[in-house]
Amino acid sequence: GTPTALMVGSGMGAEKGILIRNGEAVQTFKDIKVIAFDKTGTITKGKPETTDLLPAEGLSESDVLYAAASLENTSEHPLAHAIVESAKSQEIKLGEVTDFSAIVGKGVAGFVDGERVLVGNRKLMKENDVDFKHQQDRLVQLENEAKTAMMVAKGNKLIGVVAVADPIKEDSKKTIAEIEKMGIKTAMITGDNNRTANAIGKKVGISSVISEVLPDGKVNEVKNLQEKYEVVAMVGDGINDAPALKQSNVGIAIGTGTDIAIEAADVTLVKGELSGIISAINLSTATFKKIK
Ligand code: ADP
Ligand code: MG
Questions:
Q1: Which value does ipTM take for this structure?
Q2: Which family does it belong to (predicted)?
Q3: Which of 192, 210, 237, 239 is the pocket-test mutation for ligand 1 (most atoms within 8 Å of CB)?
């Protein structure tokens, strides 16, 4: 009967690094029409590194890094870590930060040694009347290289551009190709800008890219996919992914991600490797063939 089959199924999963928390999920896997992936930490390693540092005229790299890293030292964001790490590697001592604030989907703001500093994307700079027209071509170029470009401003003057790249996980491309081969569509949902998101989507062969989504907008994107495709799986690792994982028909958490995502999910990919999804689909199909 079903209970035995489920137990067998779950046991087989554990061997392959798939932890099934909700038995029903095993059944749903075989009916999935689309799999939506978070980008950072799911398709990519979630460990971005600084790749480009472009100071404004008359300034040095360390001027820009000092201002940016001092402020980002208060942020938990992977982008912030990349900037702080590169300041550390250059032995730059960080300044004193007051009035720090994180602006969701846009960046960070605060005072470094009493001077107003901003680090973030175009939206943040526009909101604060920082002119970046002269850097627009550079930003576009960096984004087409799949990098996330951030601007650094002091007061309302642009003092530099910092770009980071987050390496793609070894098995992302292969897993996505296999999923598509099974006739299941793939999508990526990210807060990152459209150009960077598309460059990464192209590298891994994702069929649809949904970008510039605010953290609380991911759940709505899953609902939209459900209207179109009915049975939707969501894969994610972050705190912000938890509501979307709950909303989806099968929530899949990355085992190396946050506890909140794991608790919200039906299935955990223990080792953080996306290829576990293929095993889970095969497991579901095989298990429910047996008990028919
Ligand atoms: P994701 O998790 O997909 O990267 P987020 O909503 O966290 O999406 O971030 C969206 C965008 O907001 C980033 O690509 C970046 O441009 C900007 N941003 C967010 N946090 C920071 C930060 N700490 N420093 C600079 N920029 C940031
Ligand atoms: Mg993530």
A1: 0.94
A2: Belongs to the cation transport ATPase (P-type) (TC 3.A.3) family. Type IB subfamily.
A3: 192
